[in-house]
Amino acid sequence: MENILAPAETRPAAPRLPAGPPVLQLRNIEKVYQTKTIETVALHQVNLTIGKGEFVSIMGPSGCGKSTLLSIMGLLDEPTSGEIELDGRPVQSYSDRELAALRNQKIGFVFQSYHLINDLSVLDNVELPLLYRPGVGGKERRERAYAALDKVGLSPRTSHFPGQLSGGQRQRVAIARALAGRPEIILADEPTGNLDSVMGEEILDLLLHLNREGTTIVMVTHDEQQALKTQRLIRFFDGSQVS
Amino acid sequence: MLRHLFKLIWNRKRNNLLLVSEIFFSFVVLFAVGTMLITFGTNFLAPHGFDYQQVWRLEIRAGQNETMPRTELDEVLRQVQALPGVRQVALASDNMPFIFRTNTSAFSYQGRKSEQSNIYDTDDHYAQVMGLQLREGRWFAKADDGSHHRPVVISQDLRQTLFGNEPALGKIFSWAEPGPDIKPEDQFQVTGVVDNVRMENDFGPAVPSMWIRLLPFDSTRWETANVVVRVAPGSGGELQEKIARTVAGVTRQWTTMVRVVDEDRLHKRRYTIVPVAGLALVSLFLIVNVALGLFGVLWYNISQRRAEIGLRRAMGATGSAISRQFLGEMLVVSTLGVVLGCLLAVQFPLLGVFDLPPKFYLAGIAVAGVAVYLITALCAFYPSRLAAGIHPAVALREE
Ligand SMILES: Nc1ncnc2c1ncn2[C@@H]1O[C@H](COP(=O)(O)OP(=O)(O)OP(=O)(O)O)[C@@H](O)[C@H]1O
Ligand SMILES: [Mg+2]
Fold first, then answer.
1. Is A64 touching ligand 1 by the criterion CB < 6 Å?
2. Which residue ranges does the record assign to the ABC3 transporter permease C-terminal domain (chain B) (predicted)?
3. CA distance B226 to B55
């Protein structure tokens, strides 16, 4: 891979190529959270198409529904109403087992709050998606996890436990875990939110590189500079797309 | 996957240690309760070794300052025997089945010592009245009149402790602590062996027993003669009255009391059932308590891990993969607890703590093991199934 430590100016932004066929298509998505006292409309009338090979960033104020949108795109949650299609097929038509396989092989998810298993070492955490993939042996699993950890600069920390890491390090473990599965789609919820600007840049370059190799990426970010380097920027406000 | 499982168990060793100890204690309680209930249950279902139906017992009293000459007693027995509906009459000692009177001692044969055994003094017709089941030899009889030793019949369990697999018939044995110069007529010669008997109560085990032949005796100084009578099926109060009248007809001073042995049995059962039922009730509470406790601990343990379940689902685990993982973890943890429990439990038969046959302890171990595995499997399966059924995003939020 390219040298991700090269000076920022020389690094190209994602090329604005025409988007490929749609991988993810959201139509009239509504998400309402109902609690005893209050009803929160987290998403309202969201229509969105993500093309194959695209790098889309999503921006918006806190609480506007970005994470909610990403969970729905990642098949982790269901919309209250509306339709999502993955590879042209409605998600509702997939069986539970097929959904599990899709989450495992097609999608890599970087959670805003990392979600590492505290009882597993860094290496074991990163191996996790491969654990549920048929046909991947223990040796290959370990090699791919090491490689992913190497990419995020955490090789010296493989045998640590999440509790022994800094916030930024945990975030990088979460990123490595999404990379280890070599998914076609990466959904990253503020993947650089806890990183210093240099490390943040490196992670973005890593994502840009993966995107150039064909990975479709949707990234939530609060960093305008980062967002401008992606092909498309979607702005959200109060559960709706504003641009 | 297996490596992953063991890693996870090892990394969670502090939590799991707690689980293992909870399972260990549950196992021990279930083992104790199980062994006890199985013992009572098995005893209850075991044969009594004799036929207590249609057997009556008579207590014939001479009355104050009265004597009981042998001739008159024999006449009473003869006349009762002659009554229609009476099948067989026999003389016995006062430690009748199912009543609160016992006469016990220990015996020895060539260094082999028996446990405390019941001793009954009876005549030649006793076996026939009580329906004892002969296994070897014969009941003592007239032919033994010339014997130098006391003819006795022993139960199978007593035979086993004294003689093992050697032949028993004709063997001569004595009290466990005979005096310095014991006379031949104070030693016992085996004429027969009968099935084990449970004459104490319905929940009691078989007790080794010996029946000694009443010597040609003089009954003049007896206060009471104990007689057992086998009657025809369906005999009732009419025959009882007839018997009482018959005894009174021979000698006006004597009195008779007729009791039904089966009623003695039920009466005794009412006494013994109180502690047994009490123990069973306490056991039931213990079992429910242990089950709920185990349930709670395991349930809590797994519900603590909903976020982990959500994450694994998000990473592509199927619901059944999650259930398998938790079942596997619980299986390993329970096995550790059960193995520790077994190590403790086998000490009971090994050290012979409570004088119970080892099979009861083994059954207790089996019951406790099955119960523990069932509860843990249920506790692992059900909550993980529930958690795996909800959407990953929902489960993940619960951290
Ligand atoms: N489980 C829930 N129950 C009730 N309300 C919820 C739930 N999850 C999210 N919400 C609400 O939905 C709205 C959108 O939440 P979401 O997490 O998507 O925001 P966000 O855009 O990701 O914010 P941030 O930038 O702070 O991460 C918020 O108002 C939030 O309070
Ligand atoms: Mg968010």
1. yes
2. 281-392
3. 13
Contacts of B59 (CB under 8 A, 6+ apart): B224, B225, B226, B256, B257, B259
Could you tell me which CATH number the domain at A22-241 has? Answer: 3.40.50.300
For B244-280, the DSSP string reads: HHHHHHH-TT-EEEEEEHHHHHHHHHHHHHHHHHHHH
CA-based nearest residue to B119, from B199, B224, B203: B199
Q: How many residues does chain B have?
A: 399
Averaged pLDDT for residues B91-113: 86
Cα-Cα-Cα-Cα torsion B276, B279, B283, B285, nearest 10 degrees, comes to 120
User: Residue A71 has which token pair?
Assistant: 């969970």
Reported as a single tens digit per residue, the pLDDT across B360-378 is: 899 999 999 998 899 888 8
From the CB of A112, is ligand 1 less than 6 Å away? yes
Q: Which residue of A has its CA nearest to B308?
A: A117
**Contact in structure between B316 and A133 (CB atoms under 8 Å):** yes
Q: Which of B315, B320, B397 should be substituted to probe chain A, the one whose Cβ sees the most A Cβ atoms within 10 Å? A: B315
Among B11, B317, B393, whose Cβ lies nearest the Cβ of A120?
Answer: B11
Ligand (nearest to CA of B397):
1
Q: Which of B3, B12, B318 sits opposite A97 (nearest CB)?
A: B318
Cβ neighbors of B282 (< 8 A, separation 6 or more) are none
Low-confidence ranges of chain A (pLDDT < 70): 1-19
- CA distance linking residue B310 with residue B308, whole number of Å: 5
Whole-structure pTM value = 0.78
B399 — pLDDT class (breaks 50, 70, 90): low
**Collapsed DSSP state (helix, strand, coil) of residue A225:** helix
Query: Does the predicted interface ipTM exceed a cut of 0.85?
Result: yes
The domain ranges of chain A are 22-241
- Gap from CA of A213 to ligand 2 centroid (Å): 27
pLDDT digits (tens, 9 = 90+) for A159-217: 999 999 998 899 999 999 999 999 999 999 999 988 898 989 988 999 999 999 999 99
Give yes or no for A113 touching B (CB within 8 A). Answer: yes
**With a 6 A CB cut-off, is A130 part of the ligand 1 pocket?**
no
User: What pLDDT is attached to residue A3?
Assistant: 44
